[in-house]
Amino acid sequence: MRTMGTHLPIGTAAPEAADAGASHRWYPKGTHITIRGLTKRFQDATIYDNFDLDIPKGKIVSVFGPNGCGKSTLINMIAGILPCDSGQILFEGKEARETRIGYVFQNYREAVFPWLRAIDNIRYPLQYLNLSKVEQQSRMDRLMESFDVKLDLQRYPYQMSGGQQQLVSIMRALVVDPEVLFLDEPFSALDYEMVMFLRERLQKVLVERRTTTLLVSHDLDEAVLLADEVLLLTKRPTRVAENLPFDVARPRTADTTITPAFIATKTRALDVFQREVRKP
Ligand SMILES: Nc1ncnc2c1ncn2[C@@H]1O[C@H](COP(=O)(O)OP(=O)(O)OP(=O)(O)O)[C@@H](O)[C@H]1O
After folding, report:
1. Which residues form the ABC transporter domain (predicted)?
2. Nearest protein Cα to ligand 1, atom 3
3. DSSP tag of 17
């Protein structure tokens, strides 16, 4: 189930695990994810060395930084897909396996199940939640309504465009009502019309549900547009270069990108980014 981004069964941590970590489970108010002393190496390359970060609850955080600095590595470690060498990552004091997590991969073609119709792809994770049939159906109905889907959900993935497949994979990640959603370059391979549609719908759902979200994007406009906070990373060994708040009203659309607030935040982000990439 890890590839689906859902850690299940939910809330079934062994009691001794919870007790063992209890004294280290304090977290600042308003923070959802606390990362302390995170270290990760690949062969000789140190990606993270004693890295600390607090991620606010119910906010959308975009992760932006130099090529290869470890953006995907970071969200994969937080999501529990990739082990860290040392350090601690807690969700309001809980482990990843005690948290409902959704994950949307860049490569939707490998993420959707080709043998299932769109509707069955989307509802797939529900079988692992302890929900009545009525509750399962109401989850599906709520999701369909939020996304206002025009797509024929009886189709198989091979009968859908790339954008439609990614829509299915986003809806599948959201059907479990995740506490935390991870998106790794979710729109990078899609046409602009679909990107605008998905950005708009996803924003609406995430803000309605107050889902804590971590988005990796190579597109600085997108990173700023969708974010409550833009987390700018340094080159390796990776640290936080700057954390820029962006709190203009939602919904944010293409028109937002020509406002002074957007341009100021993007300019600052670009300055920090360029300073980092020019470092030897
Ligand atoms: N499984 C692995 N084994 C060895 N090296 C790895 C592995 N996964 C990632 N790396 C290396 O670790 C570094 C960080 O990778 P990661 O994909 O997290 O960076 P990123 O910031 O997301 O990259 P990009 O900007 O290219 O998307 C890169 O140099 C990458 O080559």
Report:
1. 33-260
2. 42
3. H
